[in-house]
Design a protein that fits this description.
Length: about 210
């Protein structure tokens, strides 16, 4: 079982690089941790894999944040096991069977002019988190989606990764509520975030006790 955050861009320019997405995500993840008195400073790494694992490509920070439909980007954190994967797909493949997809996913966050531009760019991304990942990975994959949304002034959407009634949304709103149990009345989301935060606090307390 996995859950995902999708991102549809409304702007694509020179800011769309791996380096920008990673650096923004690192900053917001660490800001989030500090806001709960959790202090690990995390660093993200990324490479690109063939879907059949025939090869792994190393990337440079200045490379454009795009890859083939037969590949996925794999993000890991220096302080957590596991990771999260991201996919970069042609939007037209969805529009072939769901012509009103953009309007239904983005609601009133996009104009008619932006919808036309989105179709011309013909790209969407989504970030997946598999079940059983660590608390830090749970936090990170949402912040990676948010970082991409900031770089592209994009729309974040999801049906199962966090309180579904809050979507779609843009970067600022998302980082203010994601994984913050006090910011949702959606019971599964609240309990999940509380469990992860409590587990991280217990881990920090255990390490301090050994010192």
């Amino acid at each position: 079982m996995s859950t995902s955050f999708g991102v549809i861009p409304t702007k694509i320019d020179e800011r769309l690089t791996y380096g920008n997405v990673v650096s923004i995500a690192e900053q917001t993840i660490n800001d989030y941790l500090r806001s709960y008195q959790l202090s690990p400073v995390v660093k993200l790494s990324v490479n690109v894999h063939d879907n059949d694992e025939k090869y792994i490509k190393q990337i440079n920070p200045e490379d454009k944040f795009v890859w083939k439909g037969t590949e996925y980007a794999w993000f890991t954190l220096d302080k957590a096991k596991g990771g999260t994967e991201a996919y970069c797909n042609k939007l037209s493949e969805t529009l072939d069977y769901w012509p009103t997809y953009i309007e239904e996913v983005c609601h009133d966050l996009v104009t008619a002019k932006e919808i036309q531009q989105i179709k011309e760019w013909d790209i969407k991304w989504y970030f997946k988190r598999s079940a059983g990942q660590s608390a830090l990975v749970n936090i990170a994959y949402g912040h990676l989606a948010a970082a991409l949304a900031k770089v592209t002034d994009g729309i974040i959407y999801s049906e199962s990764a966090w309180d579904p009634k809050l979507f779609p949304m843009k970067y600022d709103n998302f980082t203010n509520i994601y994984f913050r149990p006090e910011m949702t009345d959606h019971e599964p989301s609240r309990k999940w975030a509380e469990k992860c935060l409590n587990g991280m606090r217990d881990s920090v307390a255990s390490k301090k006790a050994l010192l």
